[in-house]
Amino acid sequence: MLFALPAKAEDLRIAMPNWPSGQATANILKIAIAKEFGVSAEVQELGALNAFVGLEGGTVDIHPEVWRPNLDDVIKKFVTDKGVVVLSPRGVPAWQGICATPAAAEKGLKTIADLSDPEKTKVLDTDGDGKGEMWIGAPTWSSTGIERVRANTYGYAKNLTLVEAEEEVAMAGLDAAVATNQPMVFACYAPHFIFDLHKIVRITEPAHDASKWKLVGASDPLWISKSSASTAWDAAHFHIAYAAAFGKKHPDIAAFLERVDFSPEEVTAMSYALEVERQPAADYAKKWVEDHTARIDGWAKR
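Request: output the structure for the sequence above.
Response:
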């Protein structure tokens, strides 16, 4: 790319999720694309639904971490039906479910059925109202609404206060709970640094059964009350997405995006660096790109 001229920053926009690995990946893509193609990018924090609207409307070009099956209805709308978004065929294997601290497991909270027992879940009470609390995700996450559906279907929504808060707040609460031996149960996912940092226990559930997942599209304001899900999540994975129009304009960058192949271990390291070590996403990404020059050159091969 010796003859490539830098594009204006506004010519490439990358949506940045509000969780650590997504923030790291967005910045890695920004720096790597500038290095390989001479195209400057702007990174903007956006929720997934707004990002997909932007991918269709031309205000967003790339989303670095689109989770499935969480966003399958959105993917169907924008990728399959409208054809305005392209999903990279490469995905990072992932897992999501409910986790407990060792103290919570010791108190008998080991299975999803245990969460529907108010005598067991009262140990999760931290505000003195006699009812336990459970973090189910950040307000803008698609998984958060699905966790609320699962809580309703399984029945533990009746005896637990379901808390929505940013992940940073929840992880600080987890650190404090572990340090003080306070039982805590919470929505969790992997790859994630918490499994390296703490001895987290995964709550057991019935194996995923697609026939027992009936999710109404989130465009329906009553979708949570109309939906049901009474088994574990299906196997998860996440992908890079880009606007189809952007791919036609920049086929070389689109091909690059489809070759990006982060491993679960790398994603865990990203989240650890940003959340535990408090490294700024841009600084972490700059060093990551410097340390993986040959690999990134391979992604950009012509």
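The longest helix spans residues 20-37.
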